[in-house]
Specification:
The complex is a heterodimer of chains A (about 220) and B (about 350). Chain A is mainly alpha-helical and about 220 residues long. Chain A has one domain (about 5-220): MetI-like fold, CATH 1.10.3720. Chain A has ten helices and no strands. In chain A, helix 1 runs parallel beside helix 5 (about 90-115) and helix 2 packs across helix 5 (about 90-115). Chain A starts with a helix and ends with a helix. By secondary structure, chain B is an alpha+beta fold. Chain B is built from eight helices and 21 strands. Chain B has helices at about 35-45, 90-95, 105-110, 130-140, 160-175, 185-190, 210-215, 325-330, and strands spanning about 1-10, 15-20, 25-30, 50-55, 60, 65-70, 75-80, 145-150, 180, 195-200, 205-210, 230-240, 245-250, 255-260, 270-275, 280, 290-305, 305-315, 320-325, 340-345, 350. In chain B, the strands form four sheets. A six-stranded mixed β-sheet of chain B has the order 7-8-9-3-10-11, sandwiched between helices. A five-stranded antiparallel β-sheet of chain B has the order 2-1-4-5-6, covered by helices on one side. In chain B, strands 14-13-12-15-21 form a five-stranded antiparallel β-sheet. In chain B, a hairpin with a 2-residue loop joins strand 1 (about 1-10) and strand 2 (about 15-20). In chain B, helix 4 runs parallel beside helix 5 (about 160-175). The radius of gyration of chain B is 21 Å and the shape is globular. In chain B, about 40% of the residues are buried. Classes of the chains: A mainly alpha (about 220), B alpha+beta (about 350). The interface of A and B includes residues 122, 124, 129, 138 and 141 of A.
Chain lengths: ~220, ~350
């Protein structure tokens, strides 16, 4: 039977994944749009940097994040001066998840935007829309399915993030120990039954997320 | 009047057009000649366009005076090839997308284009002709000061073309907006346009009245296609006993067609007569079954492909294209200026 502790882990995991995905949506979609439309200099570098988390080990991304967020570094010091503590907090887990999930959202959004017929956008312009309105009324609705798929992918990635999270946030019970970390932890200490219970919960969560995504994707 | 003096670099060459166009102009030319690029440049969709585009004296683009209206401020009704309706919107939402014309006018237009019953359909469920009509309505609802139609009748079979063409004619008669039509069909250009701008590899090859394209040394832009006469007019009377309907032609004269009593007297129609279906006689025919016999004069006589195409002017003023074999022309001794009689069977006239 799931315990109160399990519930705490699930809620923390959901909080991290939801917040990470929510914070990613706007920048991820915009980055996808930029990759689909922008053909100028610097494009290749931008594309490569955005794809790095796909090819690097998560721990490598984690250590880079950890180092740049540390109070010894200027960015980390600036955050600390403003009372924001990231390292070894759930916010750190959010950041780690965001870094790992970003390329998945960007790639889906980019493909979705590339599939929108530019002539439809041209027609919208002649019908009185400026570039922003044409984007909101034509491009975005037509790319909607691909973007939603990207959001689901990003959310799933955030739900199961391990390597980068453990580097940046550690595995502190009740504070940063998400499902993925808890499964590893339980297994390490020989509590395989508990580990499998958590696996079951994870599978359930994944099912619900996919089902919701499917429903949202189908309605207009 | 439309004044053009523009250049636009293309993938393979440059589009360079300098012309003054009347209210109804057809744009013709081989594919790749720059027809679509010209329309897109005028609509403001090609950023690298330089030069000048004036519509009734108002500048949409004028580099010398630093005028460069963005597409949304040009008030150009653009109907691209294949209609390009917004697939995520209903017919109604498509039409109202950029609506600026008064409601009453939009409503009247939906009636004319026979779209009122389709308003809640999705573009994916429409036929080709319906899509073209929706795209036209969408462009017209913005109350444009210039209409750019990219092959509005292409890809439609003959029956569908006959359904859409009368709408274009009505638009011309009722909306009075300067219009450019891209077309491959000389027949369409003859009905719809006062002038034809012929493009060849990005340049203006010539600009002539549509009928002049027939006379020029036997070259007919589409000699391989069926050549059809499109004769706009209005229903005059029905003769139910005689099984015929009489139609007064806009160009003068009257034609008798098989009974079409679904159309009320006064209704606008267009008659379609294939150029091959017209009989020619050098003497006034007698005892002929054909209900339509007109005295006419040959105003152009040109070899087009394997046939000879005659352009005839009926005594009422209406122009009619006739296609004969060279041997018939020779036997009858027909030449430019000949007096002839044209006969058309009622049943070879399609009413649209």
């Amino acid at each position: 039977m799931p315990s109160g502790e399990d519930l705490e882990v699930v809620l923390l995991t959901l909080r991290v994944a939801v917040v990470a995905t929510a914070l990613l949506v706007v920048p991820g979609v915009l980055a996808g749009l930029a990759l689909a439309r922008y053909r100028g200099p610097g494009r290749g570098v931008f594309e490569t940097v955005l794809s790095l988390p796909l090819v690097l080990p998560p721990t490598a991304i984690g250590i880079v994040l950890l180092e740049s967020l540390s109070p010894r570094r200027s960015f980390g010091a600036w955050l600390a001066a403003h009372g924001v503590e990231v390292v070894f907090t759930w916010k750190g887990a959010v950041l780690a998840s965001m870094a790992m999930a970003l390329p998945l959202l960007v790639r889906s959004a980019r493909t979705a935007f590339e599939e929108v017929d530019p002539r439809l956008v041209g027609v919208a312009r002649t019908l009185g829309c400026g570039p922003v309105r044409a984007f909101l009324r034509v491009t975005l609705p037509l790319a909607r399915r691909g973007i939603l798929a990207g959001i689901v992918l990003a959310f799933s990635r955030a739900l199961g993030e391990f390597g980068a999270t453990v580097m940046v946030a550690g595995s502190i019970p009740g504070r940063t120990r998400t499902l993925a970390l808890a499964i590893f932890q339980q297994h390490q200490v020989g509590h395989d039954a508990e580990a499998f219970r958590l696996v079951g919960i994870t599978v359930l969560l994944a099912f619900v997320a996919l089902w919701v995504a499917e429903r949202v994707g189908r309605t207009r | 009047m439309i004044e053009l003096a523009l250049t636009l670099p293309l993938a393979d060459g440059t589009l360079e057009v300098e012309a003054t166009l009347p209210y109804a102009t057809a744009v013709m030319g081989a594919s790749g000649a720059g027809k679509t690029s010209l329309l897109e440049a005028m609509a403001g969709l090609r950023r690298r366009t330089r030069g000048r585009v004036l519509v009734d004296g108002e500048a949409l683009l004028d580099d010398v005076r630093g005028v460069r209206l963005p597409p949304q401020r040009r008030r150009v009704g653009y109907v691209p090839q294949d209609a390009r309706l917004f697939p995520h919107l209903s017919v109604r939402e498509n039409v109202l997308f950029g609506a600026r014309a008064p409601d009453a006018r939009v409503h009247a237009m939906l009636e004319v284009l026979e779209l009122t019953r389709l308003l809640y359909r999705r573009p994916a469920t429409l036929s080709g002709g319906e899509r073209q009509r929706v795209a036209l309505a969408r462009a017209l609802a913005t109350d444009p000061r210039l209409l750019l139609l990219d092959e509005p009748l292409a890809g439609l079979d003959v029956a569908l073309r006959d359904r859409v063409l009368p709408y274009l004619l009505r638009l011309r008669a009722e909306w009075d907006v300067p219009t450019l039509y891209v077309t491959h069909q000389l027949g369409e250009a003859i009905v719809l346009a006062e002038s034809v701008l012929v493009l060849d590899r990005g340049r203006v090859a010539r600009q002539v009245p549509p009928l002049a394209l027939l006379g020029a040394d036997g070259t007919l832009a589409d000699a391989s296609h069926d050549l059809e006469n499109f004769l706009p007019g209005r229903v005059r009377t029905h003769d139910e006993a005689g099984g015929v309907t009489r139609v007064a032609l806009d160009g003068g004269g009257e034609m008798t067609v098989p009974l079409e009593d679904a159309r009320a007297p006064g209704a606008r129609v267009a008659l379609v007569v294939r150029a091959e279906d017209v009989l020619v006689s050098t003497a006034a025919p007698q005892g002929l079954s054909a209900r339509n016999v007109f005295a006419a004069r040959v105003t152009a006589c040109a070899r087009a492909g394997a046939d000879v195409t005659l352009r005839c002017s009926l005594d009422g003023g209406t122009a009619m294209l006739v296609r004969l074999t060279p041997s018939a022309v020779q036997a009858l001794g027909i030449e430019n200026g000949s007096r002839v009689w044209l006969a058309v069977k009622s049943h070879s006239i399609r009413v649209t």
